[in-house]
Design goal:
The complex is a heterodimer. By secondary structure, chain A is an alpha/beta fold. Chain A is built from 34 helices and twelve strands. By secondary structure, chain B is α+β, with helices and mostly antiparallel strands. Chain B contains two helices and five strands. Chain B has a five-stranded antiparallel β-sheet. The relative contact order of chain B is 0.34. The chains are: A alpha/beta, B alpha+beta. Chains A and B meet through helix 3, helix 11, helix 16 and strand 10 of A and helix 1, strand 2 and strand 4 of B.
Chain lengths: 799, 75
């Protein structure tokens, strides 16, 4: 057995036929995803055992027909014909069909029959058909079609043994036949039955076959003639020159003259044959029964009720990723911080520990923190998809999205992007059309995500709130920030669809599948698959970008002959501070934090310690009239301030700090000094990092974006006070942060793509560096221009 | 002869012809929208477009621009 080459089976079928369920049922848990160069579709592969043989099972993308109009649609044809690079031709193709909609499903099967590979038809959802009063004579259908037909219920795992046997027999039968033909004996033809095409058509194909050489499969020649402007035509023209287009056109003219014009000739031939084949095999009730789907659809696609239910559902989805995920994300980031704290105590200080804790661990945390949102969104999407609602959602939203050149299927990915672009971009997989999908991916990061919120809250709370400002102003500015994305994303999609992604409007024709109860197993599986795929593919890239930014902020470490490097100095000072606090605790003094630090919202290391209540302060030398505890607090505060100053000095001279100074001329027109420029650069891994970096540069210690979000009054935080006090280096009387500067910074962050995770996911989904690079460039240009316009106008208005 | 997009919800018709030979018409035909088939308009989306139709055992959603290529005789 071991020496036998592995058998290969391919699974093909219309969308909504239970293809994925069957694939999972046949191949079990071990699956992997295959990519092909130049296409965005993926194929899943698994192992299937039957009859003591191992098969590799390839799950081809769901499709209604094999008439490829794009490289993505060509994949299935190429795989079955054995022309896909890196793939061996399958020994058998399993064509899964929906028993409750047999004729339409058999259309694809008739095309598969012409590809010269043994075919097994899996007649799925036989229970649904029975419930509708449709009865199918499987044996007779099998005789008429000329291939084995097995009735199955993939979701209940019924009929799978019979299907496995049939697959095995079909594959061995074919092997036998090919051996016989190699020996020159009488070979059994693979598909004896196939739809008859008009004589004129067959003659023309034979002629083309002779002219172009035998190595082009006959099926592709048929496609050349039948698909006007299709992908086969484009590919063959590239191979043989323009002459071939001419030839195809001549054949089409001849066909039209003979009364069988393209493309009607194909549909008529196939559906005509399907009608003949199924005659006598299918019994239908005289009166079409009113199904559950009819009843449900009356409400769900209703103009008023349908829209209301849709909006409620979308609100729920949005709430789930926006709000429900937050506590879990908090647990993850707290856990990461606790682990870092624990390790920091165990490891010797130095660059290696810093890399491990501030680079790698931070990076891993930044990756894992996305998982709650991704898993929650995909649980919703899988349920909506599996129960059949997704098509209705696309139906309801299509007109709205068509106005910006997209289709209804882009709505949910864009809505999800308002919580986070990463799951939003992953959700674009439901969009079959490549150009629509790309356009959606490229504009999704413009939607205002939750990572921008802390930036808005900090700047609005600090500079646009309080006396002298109207009460409604903060809300209005916040709304305006969200509106920027809501207006620009559709506009940008329209621009992209008219320029870079120009092309024919894709066909929208959408099947509205029967409603059914979603399968928990499938939902769970899709959730885990998406989470795992994100971790594996995008995770590494996000991690790498975090480490790079960490290194740019860490090096050079400074120091010289008379002074140790910054990190060593800081560690020493930290030690002193800790010892002091230890003394204080021994003496029973509360740390100053209890009085002031909390209100300031500063995440100082003191926060966590020295809580024990007590009165006896340690004896410290002090001035007359100042109580010893107060003096002790001042000492602690002074030490802490010293540490923060030292960190700030270190970071300002780091490579990133130098980059900030280098780009100052470029950011000055935006009203920024080099410190803001540096913070913007440092926020490349994620927008909210800008707050932490501002905190470091303004010597407030590490600033957590959650603290800003949760602060009762943002303007009272230490960071806010320091930002208000900030002055220009070359003009110490002029404050850096004015209202126009704050607005320009907000607009910049509303429009920029300072999010390595988004770029990593775009790279992963488009399989190309070009698109993330394009997204980053266009968004940065847009952000710069937006910030420039806002600042300059603001200055003119006298801000 | 009216085209499918001119039918109101609840109206039925028999397909008489499809115009054009491009990818759109090919896709419509592949989905079973052929001459002689009976179709019923079931509903319109909130903004009046696309429309939901019944064809045999399946339900399809088509944009108005697509339905305009399908000519029907009212039944």
């Amino acid at each position: 057995m071991g020496s036998d080459p592995k058998r290969i089976a391919a699974l093909i079928g219309n969308p909504n036929t239970g293809k994925t369920t069957l694939f999972n049922a046949l191949s079990g848990l071990r699956q992997r995803v295959g990519n092909y160069p130049g296409v965005t579709v993926e194929t899943k592969k698994g192992q299937m055992c039957c009859g003591g043989q191992t098969f590799e099972l390839i799950d081809l993308p769901g499709t209604y027909s094999l008439s490829p109009r794009s490289p993505d649609e060509m994949v299935a044809v190429d795989v079955i014909l054995g022309r896909q690079q890196g793939e061996v031709r399958p020994d058998v193709v399993i064509s899964i069909v929906d028993a409750s909609n047999l004729e339409r499903n058999l259309y694809l099967t008739t095309q598969v029959l012409e590809l010269g590979v043994p075919v097994v038809v899996a007649l799925n959802m036989i229970d649904v058909a029975t419930a509708q009063g449709i009865r199918i004579d499987t044996e007779r259908l099998s005789r008429q079609l000329g291939v084995p037909v097995v009735a199955i219920q993939a979701n209940k795992k019924k009929g799978l043994e019979a299907l496995r046997e049939a697959i095995c027999r079909a594959a061995s039968g074919a092997a036998l036949a090919s051996q016989e033909s190699a020996r020159g004996t009488n070979a059994a033809p693979l598909a004896t039955h196939r739809p008859p095409f008009p004589e004129v058509f067959e003659c023309a194909i034979h002629q083309l076959h002779r002219e172009l050489g035998e190595d082009i499969p006959e099926y592709l020649l048929r496609r050349l003639v039948l698909d006007v402007g299709g992908w086969t035509e484009q590919r063959l023209v590239a191979q043989f020159g323009e002459g071939i287009r001419q030839k195809a056109q001549e054949v089409r003219q001849r066909l039209a003259q003979a009364g069988c014009p393209v493309p009607a000739v194909e549909a008529r031939a196939r559906y005509g044959w399907i009608r003949e084949v199924t005659a006598g095999c299918i019994q239908r009730p005289a009166q079409r029964a009113v199904t559950w789907t009819d009843r449900i659809d009356r409400v769900l696609t209703h103009k008023v009720w349908g829209t209301l239910i849709f909006l409620t559902l979308m609100f729920l989805v949005f709430q789930a990723i926006f709000t429900w995920a937050r506590p879990i994300m908090k647990v993850i980031s707290d856990g990461k911080d606790a682990l870092a704290e624990l390790l920091r105590g165990q490891l010797p200080p130095g660059p290696f520990t810093a890399l491990l804790l501030d680079g790698v661990l931070e990076g891993v945390g930044a990756v894992v923190v996305f998982l709650p949102q991704i898993l929650i969104l995909f649980a919703f999407l899988a349920v909506l998809e599996d129960c059949g609602y997704m098509a209705r959602a696309a139906f309801l939203m299509d007109k709205l999205m068509a106005r910006c050149g997209l289709s209804g299927k882009s709505f949910i990915p864009l809505l999800s992007s308002m919580a986070c672009a990463v799951p939003g971009i992953l959700a674009t997989r439901v969009i079959e059309n490549r150009r629509d999908r790309l356009a959606t991916i490229l504009v999704a990061p413009l939607m205002s995500c939750s990572a921008r919120l802390p930036v808005y809250i900090l700047l609005i709370g600090t500079f646009l709130t309080g006396p002298g400002f109207a009460r409604w102003l903060p809300g209005l500015v916040m709304f305006a920030m969200y509106a920027i994305g809501l207006v620009l994303a559709p506009l940008m999609a329209l621009v992209l669809k008219r320029t870079l992604l120009r092309g024919q409007t894709p066909v929208f024709v959408l099947e509205m599948p029967l409603y059914k109860v979603p399968s928990p197993r499938l939902v769970l599986r899709r959730m885990l698959d998406s989470g795992w795929a994100f971790l594996r593919r995008a995770g590494t890239l996000i991690l790498a970008s975090m480490v790079v930014v960490w290194a740019l902020l860490y090096f050079p470490r400074g120091g010289g002959p008379e002074q140790p490097p910054y990190d060593v100095r800081i560690a020493a000072m930290q030690k002193e501070l800790d010892d002091l606090k230890e003394q204080g605790r021994a003496g029973g003094v509360n740390s100053p934090v209890n009085e002031q630090g909390r209100a300031e919202g500063v995440n100082s290391p003191v926060n966590e310690q020295g809580r024990a209540g007590g009165v006896n302060p340690p004896v410290e030398p002090g001035e007359q009239g100042v109580s010893p505890p107060r003096l002790f607090y001042q000492l602690l505060e002074g030490k802490e301030q010293q540490i923060n100053e030292c960190i700030a000095e270190w970071k300002r001279q780091s490579y990133l700090g130098r980059m900030g100074k280098a780009i100052e001329p470029a950011v000055r027109p935006l009203g920024w000094d080099w410190k803001i420029g540096m913070a913007a650069l440092a926020s490349f891994p994620a927008r909210e990092v800008v707050i932490g970096t501002l905190g470091i540069i303004y010597s407030t210690g590490k600033q957590d974006s959650d603290e800003i979000r949760n602060a009762a009054n943002v303007a009272d935080t230490l960071l806010a006070r320091r930002m208000k006090e900030a002055r220009w280096d070359d003009d110490p009387t002029r404050p850096v942060f004015t209202i126009p500067t704050a607005l320009s910074l907000m607009v910049f962050f509303a429009l920029c793509c300072q999010c390595a995770s988004t770029l990593a996911v775009i790279w992963r989904e488009t399989h190309s560096w070009r698109w993330p690079a394009f997204t980053f460039t266009y968004m940065t240009v847009l952000a710069y221009l937006g910030a420039l316009v806002v600042y300059q106008i603001g200055r003119l208005l006298g801000g | 002869m009216p085209s499918l997009d001119q039918l109101r919800p609840g109206q039925c018709g028999r397909i008489a012809a499809l115009t054009g030979n491009d990818g759109l018409v090919q896709r419509l035909m592949e989905m079973g929208l052929l001459e002689g088939e009976e179709v019923e308009v079931l509903a319109l989306a909130p903004l009046g477009d696309p429309l939901e139709i019944r064809l045999g055992d399946s339900r399809l959603s088509l944009r108005r621009s697509e339905a305009a290529r399908i000519h029907v005789s009212l039944s």
